[in-house]
Amino acid sequence: MNKRIRNLSLVVIILGVVALAMGAVFVQQGFSKEAWLIKATEQEQIEIPGEESVIINSAETAQAAADIVREHRRGIAPTYGDLLGGEKFNPTDPTQLSYGQAMNIENYLYLAVTAFGVFAVVKAIGAFMIVTGLALGTTGYILWQRADK
What we know:
With 149 residues, the chain is mainly α.
């Protein structure tokens, strides 16, 4: 029986170490990619329209800027279909070009909002894995100690 408990405790300890390592990687990757995106958005120096001193470097500022761009884009035309009016895209039409550029910037900003959210989830999952790894490691250690008795 002691050998079976010892083997079980060893498996639990190994699972704990794996969970701990995976959690550390998740947390590191979450912070690393978030720092990369912040640096990239700050290098682009995209500012919130009307608030020139506010550089977009978080989900909140990206969301605010994207909403403003969307509002301005809808001022040009409510939808892409309305803009074209049943015709094909005309790359020489400045209005259509402005609309297309606004769509690109809007998508870029909403993608940044999504990315910041994913980074938060990845870091939270990593933290949970670390806690789980510590719990498994502790449980395995306690089982190991009891196998000796």
